Amino acid sequence: MLLLLSSSPAPRTSRAHLARSWGTLARVVQAPEPTSDAPDLLAAVASGDQSAFERLYDQLERPVFGTCFGVLRDPDHAAEVAQEVWVEVWRTAARFDAGRGSARTWVVTLAHRRAVDRVRSVQAQRDRDQRVLDESGERPFDVVADEVEGMLEQVRVRDCLQTLTETQHRAVVLAYYGGKTYREVAETLGAALPTVKSRIRDGLLRLKDCLGVAA
Fold this sequence. Notes:
By secondary structure, the chain is mainly alpha-helical. The protein has 11 helices and no strands.
């Protein structure tokens, strides 16, 4: 049973409760609406009736989660999005129009839209990460790396290495003294590849300044 605080703008759902039956929920999306009082419940929810929201949740929990899972194919992501859907139902129940479809269809449509938005958001983040990786491989930084690498045996380099942050120092030393690739450095440090490439890039730029290497 869901519990709401009177001061809370929206009820909270249990993520574990949403996810416990995910293996069979996708089939429920196409099932007929089990009750006929969902429109009345939505109307009550619109007026802030917490008990009505709990009853509506009990009725439509499975089709909401099943819709999210059908789009996302991941139970954890589906549970997160389903929780967002129920918050939206609580906040926007007054927008439901019985003349345009059933209450079940309205709620499930919200779930589908939210799930699609999550897919688009994840893809957009992947695209941004890829652009960062691509930009980190531009020639100006490669030139700096080549010039610094040629001077790593000089005593002055050891002094300049001390000007780096600890994370930059470890990444640069592993890459240029240890002969590791960026990916191997990332695995050694337990850090994301874009993060490691950024540390090495920034460290090389600082070494360039310290060593007086012209870009």
